[in-house]
TrEMBL record:
<dbReference type="GO" id="GO:0070382">
    <property type="term" value="C:exocytic vesicle"/>
</dbReference>
<dbReference type="InterPro" id="IPR000008">
    <property type="entry name" value="C2_dom"/>
</dbReference>
<dbReference type="GO" id="GO:0005509">
    <property type="term" value="F:calcium ion binding"/>
</dbReference>
<protein>
    <submittedName>
        <fullName>Synaptotagmin VIa</fullName>
    </submittedName>
</protein>
<dbReference type="GO" id="GO:0005544">
    <property type="term" value="F:calcium-dependent phospholipid binding"/>
</dbReference>
<dbReference type="GO" id="GO:0001786">
    <property type="term" value="F:phosphatidylserine binding"/>
</dbReference>
<feature type="region of interest" description="Disordered">
    <location>
        <begin position="85"/>
        <end position="109"/>
    </location>
</feature>
<dbReference type="InterPro" id="IPR035892">
    <property type="entry name" value="C2_domain_sf"/>
</dbReference>
<dbReference type="GO" id="GO:0030276">
    <property type="term" value="F:clathrin binding"/>
</dbReference>
<dbReference type="GO" id="GO:0005886">
    <property type="term" value="C:plasma membrane"/>
</dbReference>
<dbReference type="GO" id="GO:0000149">
    <property type="term" value="F:SNARE binding"/>
</dbReference>
<dbReference type="Pfam" id="PF00168">
    <property type="entry name" value="C2"/>
</dbReference>
<comment type="similarity">
    <text>Belongs to the synaptotagmin family.</text>
</comment>
<feature type="domain" description="C2">
    <location>
        <begin position="1"/>
        <end position="75"/>
    </location>
</feature>
<dbReference type="GO" id="GO:0017156">
    <property type="term" value="P:calcium-ion regulated exocytosis"/>
</dbReference>
């Protein structure tokens, strides 16, 4: 459900990551409010990885325990102010290391 005050994002995201890199990888997702008139703003963020907290770490550990198996969880968005500095710093360092492969769409049934 998009273009609403209560959107639902139910998307599969698939990355190929070498096993020896798993300790150095995390996934940061920012949800933006796109505004045609004013300015775009981050309305929420979430993080998955070994250094994430709570459900973000639990989800990551479950993915590691069951490689190549789809693992689905709902994640609540966190307020962006809390992690905006960290996000910008990590994005800058990621850009300097090069880009990662683009996500593949899920296989058709």
């Amino acid at each position: 459900k998009k273009n609403t005050l209560n959107p639902t994002y139910n998307e599969a995201i698939i990355f190929d990551i070498p096993p020896d890199s798993m300790d150095h990888v995390s996934l940061h997702i920012s949800v933006m409010d796109y505004d045609l008139v004013g300015h775009n703003e981050i309305i929420g963020v979430m993080r998955l990885g070994s250094h994430a907290e709570g459900l973000g770490r639990d989800h990551w550990n479950e993915m590691l325990a069951y490689p190549r198996k789809p693992i689905a969880h709902w994640h609540h968005l966190l307020e962006p102010k809390k992690s905006e500095k960290e996000w910008k710093a990590r994005t800058a360092s990621f850009d300097s290391q090069g880009s990662c492969p683009s996500p593949r769409p899920p296989a058709s049934p």
